[in-house]
Specification:
single chain; 140 residues; alpha+beta; two-stranded antiparallel sheet; 3 helices; 26% strand; elongated
């Protein structure tokens, strides 16, 4: 066994002589930045499905990202409004750029959280969105 020191965390670890591991763990490899994003073997193109059915898209520089991800339906609506209705009240300015305000929701018309086609999405205030779902629940 060879003794090495992890360049990321400084931890001493042992490895086999024919093993070229320079790091003590995958966590340290990823923290070092050598296998982030597309270089990581688990990379799936920056899209992932959350347990609640929504699709998240990697968008690390978006001001409303959570752990570097933003709901895809919000990005679709944001892009549409920026291109077709740049003065829409749902858009707020941050610096030189406009973004979909966190005060606005994007409703899925068919209730399918992964169907992010523009024809299925409607921008509405949080109050309007809650009211819509209350009315739908009362009918059903």
């Amino acid at each position: 066994m060879l003794r090495k020191i992890c360049p990321t965390c400084g931890k001493r670890f042992e490895t086999w002589p024919n093993d070229d591991n320079a790091f003590c763990s995958r966590k340290c490899v990823n923290r070092k930045g050598t296998r982030r994003g597309a270089k990581n073997s688990y990379w799936k193109g920056g899209r992932t499905r959350h347990s609640d059915g929504y699709i998240y898209v990697r968008s690390p520089y978006h001001p409303f990202s959570s752990n570097g991800y933003v709901f895809e339906h919000r990005l679709v609506m944001e892009r549409y409004l920026l291109e077709h209705e740049p003065d829409h009240p749902a858009l707020i300015r941050i610096g030189e750029q406009k973004y979909l305000s966190p005060e606005w929701d994007t409703h899925h018309g068919d209730e399918n959280r992964s169907n992010n086609k523009l024809s299925n999405l409607v921008a509405m205030t949080k109050t309007e969105h809650k009211k819509l779902h209350r009315e739908t629940a009362a009918k059903g």
